[in-house]
Amino acid sequence: MKTIFDNIKGDRIIWAIAALLAIFSFLPVYSAASNLAYIGNGSNTFSYFIKHFVHLFLGFSIIYGVHKIPYRYFKGLSLVMIPVILILLIVTMVQGSTIGGANASRWIRVPIVGFTFQPSTLAALVLMVYVARYLSKVKDKEHSFKDSILPLWIPVFVVLALILPANFSTAALIFSMVILLTFLGGYSFKYLSVIIGSGVVVLMLFVLTAKAFPDLMPNRVDTWSSRISSFMDPDVTVKDYQIEKAKIAIATGGVQGLGPGKSIQKNFLPQSSSDFIFAIIIEEYGLIGGLFLLFLYLWLLFRIVIVAQKSETVFGKLLSIGVGIPIVFQALVNMGVAVQLFPVTGQTLPLISSGGTSIWVTCLALGIVISVSTKRDAKKVYENEEQHPLEILSEAL
Question: Of 109, 151, 282, 365, which one's alpha carbon is 20 to 30 angstroms from that of 127?
């Protein structure tokens, strides 16, 4: 054990925050999983607890392995991974899974192993690394909007187009984070306005097409519309069932909560161990538990900014911001949905909610941030070391 801790490098506070979030997650997941065990076939609550433990164990193994990789190698890896995620997204889309006529093609089943995987979550991370690579490459160089269309915006919009029909919230989250990263990377605000306008127009055309030709392709446009209508109109007669149960759970929790495992709404709230676990946390641990969780995520945001500020390369700064901030943003969105600040999105609470893909990709992102914080890639070291083949490929493209 001592050898493992001796080999842990980088920002120790980020390591500690990740560990605290993971440890904190066990009791809420164990408690909320009782509903899953009840409706499952031959399953029990402890089996979900073990499953969550395995996901977190593999996740922290990912952090440990990735933080050992010098972060400059991710430049070339992003180029290699872009075609891979495009293939995965296409396979996911064409498999044609539907629920109630709506597109539910979000997961693919890995052969032999048998577990399901959500490619859009990995696509978001790879795309942010790719954008950071491009921005660091053109930093302080004169380039026109036309020059950036093919190498930057075409891959972004193709990935978003493959995710949008089945998962609007993830597509919107990725688009928002790309816009933020490009803005922080010094991309012209005038050009960004064009991109944002184009994105809005494309979204409107997609929605209108889906409404006019509902049989053209499976989609979730009607689901989006109903959720937004329910959120915007306080007088709507048919309330969102999940939101209503989440609000009851939060109101029941009060300041101190009912106590660990004593949630009542976990038995009625769908996705209580994933999308709406924050409501269960407040019901059991009260406002105190909710604020503690919020503090941890904001502390993580602060450390990510510190890592970016201390990085000695442009790519390191953009990389840590690009893969780190989406974690905190997703957490805030998840919390906002539970307290009805946002419409229902289906975004999980990072490192808290059950689910393998979300945990593993979050850990991958944290591993990258910690890799940046190790300072193995200080500028003078970068200039003296022999370049890795992936770096040569990255610079060539």
Answer: 109
Cα–Cα distances in angstroms (integers) from residue 180 to residues 52, 111, 290, in the given order: 32, 37, 27
Q: What is the pLDDT of residue 392?
A: 42
Residue 172 CB-half CA count within 13 A: 15
The candidate with the shortest Cα–Cα distance to 316, out of 388, 393, 395, 375, is: 375
**Which stretches of the chain score pLDDT less than 70?**
1-6, 35-43, 96-105, 110-115, 214-239, 375-397
**Cα-only R_g, the chain:** 21
pLDDT computed for residue 393 by the predictor: 45
Q: How many CA atoms lie within 13 A of 274 on its CB side?
A: 16
Instruction: Give the Cα separation of 154 and 58 in Å (integer).
Output: 34
Q: What pLDDT was estimated at residue 364?
A: 96
Largest Cα separation within the chain, whole Å, is: 67
Helix, strand, or coil (residue 120)? helix
- Give the whole-angstrom CA distance, residue 33 versus residue 4: 32
- Tell me if 367 sits within 8 A of 336, measured CB to CB: no
Cβ neighbours for 213, distance < 8 A, ≥ 6 positions apart: none
- Pairwise CA distance, residues 46 & 33, whole Å: 9
> For the chain, where are the E strands, in sequence order?
98-99, 102-103, 108-109, 116-117
- DSSP type of residue 152: I
